[in-house]
Design a protein that fits this description.
The structure is a homodimer. By secondary structure, chain A is of the alpha/beta class. Chain A is built from nine helices and twelve strands. In chain A, a hairpin with an 8-residue loop joins strand 6 and strand 7. Strand 2 of chain A pairs antiparallel with strand 2 of chain B, so a sheet runs across the interface.
Amino acid sequence: MTDDTPPRKTPTACVLIIGNEILSGRTQDINLNYIAKGLAERGVRLKEARVIPDICDVIVETVNEVRAQYDYVFTTGGIGPTHDDITAECIAKAFGVKLVLNEEIRAMMLSRYPQGQLNEARLRMAHTPEGATLVPNPISGPPGFRIGNVFVMAGVPRIAQGMFDAIKHTLAGGPPILARTVLCNLPEGTIAKGLGEIQSRYADIDIGSYPTFARGKPETNLVSRGLDRDRLDRAAAEISALIRELGGDPIDIA
Amino acid sequence: MTDDTPPRKTPTACVLIIGNEILSGRTQDINLNYIAKGLAERGVRLKEARVIPDICDVIVETVNEVRAQYDYVFTTGGIGPTHDDITAECIAKAFGVKLVLNEEIRAMMLSRYPQGQLNEARLRMAHTPEGATLVPNPISGPPGFRIGNVFVMAGVPRIAQGMFDAIKHTLAGGPPILARTVLCNLPEGTIAKGLGEIQSRYADIDIGSYPTFARGKPETNLVSRGLDRDRLDRAAAEISALIRELGGDPIDIA
């Protein structure tokens, strides 16, 4: 790379978690955290996530809102064989295209199910919006799909995460979003003023302050996030110096 | 209650999780699940949740969008003493009111902190939007607040959950949203058709189908949710009969 190389931009993303089971409290979502970490590694900035119910109008409207707003959209949930699995048809509706039988998926399913088992309900999973490409399913069952900037994945965590891993390398990411953590044995309120001053000198870095009582006393995790390793190192050094100045012991977790 | 009593409506709610740490993948949110369960018990339907970053314009815009759309809004995160704790000022901005020093919180903090420790940063936590009432903090630190239909709570799970528990009884809930689960040792695709037929006869009940491999083989949890215990019992009985008809063993988890 020469100095003339324009800096790569950081694309943006939104995750849509589609599922009544999350909103009812039946299920604790763990896909968002997995996807969020993967996107940061890949240099894609996750700007928003939404949990929405299995209601077609809501899915259509939300998908159309966020796909216009962000570079990438990732959906999880609602791609099985039952009546509440309506994601594929809603995505087709959002894009104004037909839901069509995908011969590749059908062939996969024919080879997977014993004769007679590939019933009408299961064949619903072989339908994708016209123009979609497939998102491999490395775990079990039919694939997800991509249409435009929207990736449609399963909800079952093992499968959702396998699908995400399978397409992660295809994302046009920017430089990885790096993090640097300093743990501090002082409460937030003690370091808040100095920390705000450091933040004001590092406009390119997001400094987050996260209190914790995990070890039975008030501690604070100070997390700097940004694209430039040197700047993060400098911010972390200033944060450590501030903590020492205030009588604390910084632990640089890196 | 007589037959003339109008049925109580089910109010709606939205949860806003405010925090870069969730979007970066640093932190796995567990507050949404807790609040979701509590709302269902209280007879409030959680219709949406969003995770948004610590960016004031985004917070203001999102709060104003969802507070107009739902009966209740619950926010978590961003109410500490550091520069990234901007929720209170953003909520004030969303409501078009001033952020003012709350003497009740200030008095609480004065009694809590040793002399000289109640610095300017900590005093930020004693500020609430004009007209707000307090949400008790039964764990540690300053309270949250309520303004209009928006409840503003901490992000640290123990505190967020304590605050939610402290205000839950004040919500004008409808009848509790009940759930009835039948576990089935058949894969989803086998029962999908019959299940869809049952769903079509129970418009007042949401039947969700959730595949699991938790016990090493494909099983399906069939969850019926609704307001009427008898109708749930009848739907569960029909689901169990369907499973038996298809050669499976239903387990009524209730």
